[in-house]
Design goal:
There is one protein chain. By secondary structure, the chain is of the alpha/beta class. It has 2 domains: 168 residues, Periplasmic binding protein-like II (D-Maltodextrin-Binding Protein, domain 2); 210 residues, Periplasmic binding protein-like II (D-Maltodextrin-Binding Protein, domain 2). Helices cover 46% and strands 15% of the residues. It contains 18 helices and 10 strands. Strands 1, 2, 3, 4, 5, 6, 7, 8, 9 and 10 form a 10-stranded mixed sheet that branches. Helix 11 packs across helix 17. The protein is globular, with a radius of gyration of 24 Å.
Amino acid sequence: MKSTFLVATLLATTFLSTAASAQEVTLTIESWRNDDLTIWQDKIIPAFEAANEGIKVVFSPSAPTQYNSALNAKLEAGTAGDLITCRPFDGSLSLFEAGYLSEVGDLENMENFGSVAKSGWSTDDGSATFCVPMASVIHGFIYNKDAFAEIGVEVPTTVDEFFDVLDAFKEDGTYIPLAMGTADQWEAATMGYANIGPNYWKGEEGRLALIAGEQKLTDPGWVAPYEQLERWGEYLGDGYEAQSYPDSQNLFTLGRAAIYPAGSWEISGFNAQVDFEMGAFPPPVQNAGDDCYISDHVDIAIGMNAASPNSEAARTFLNWVGSGDFADLYANSLPGFFSLSNAQIEMSDPLAQEMVSWRQDCGSSIRPFHQILSRGTPNLANEYWVTSANVIRGTMTPQEAGQKLQDDLSSWYPPQQ
């Protein structure tokens, strides 16, 4: 009896010890997104912990400008957290190649993501994926519905209709037709060239052909977006050359401009500032009935520290990030940051729902020069800031802009030589 009691006691003690140990697993997330700390603490982490007893999660962000250096230092010292929030493309790829990030392509829920979604966190040949995609940002145009009704114009679907709308606002004079400046340059590239361009180079078809050396930046599909941008200058308002990004935001939110060439990250901020109803439309196509394409740029993902002592729990968390439940929670907690999952998600924010609905009819593509083509010098992801702004300002022709980028690329990239 005594022996039996002792064995039972030992087994119970072992069971309780094991259970206590399981409950003590704590995962730490490294991130640069310190602006959404409360969303992680109040919504995302509680949802995971409720469904995964025994795993606790701590969200521990760094300042965005310090994230890369701080993370690299922690990884080298062996003090980084279990989960690593991943920026897209080369920064995260270098961490994987250095052995700091584990491959996660075998997780069950990775089947919920297509090749475009995974492109920012996969090897060049696509054979390995090292972060679970979380969200993208979509480009298009946000507009003032009250201004459209006042002037009596409809949402444009073709390029000709787009310029007809701009002409109507310019002729009326009440509103600046387009709220964008060229002082900071990156808007001209990101909300200009990369926004409208996929309709001309046919999204991923053209982008991948450029990487393969099968198309050149002097080809019509790559010069044509500049030809449209060349026409934008007369609709941007007086002094647009000195107009900064915050200036453009203010012009639109104060009701002084009709259309804002946009990234979806503006939604939350605009919602809090405008006193008029907003709508959104995708980049107009060249001719009615043409296939449409949108810039649906991969933005954020999360991976596992290869040195994590809690790899099993970390993989459980990452697989949950790949689920439809997480996709819905994240996208509705941060309107304008759209899940990259194939899951069908209904947005509670009407403007976010409008923009994400474009995926159903249009092909998705990422910004043209952010994968592979930004590794050399000159860096095309930076150089097209200058060419886009110069074309709008009229100091460079569309053909000169295409030739400039082609010369830059062929100077260091073998497939274009």
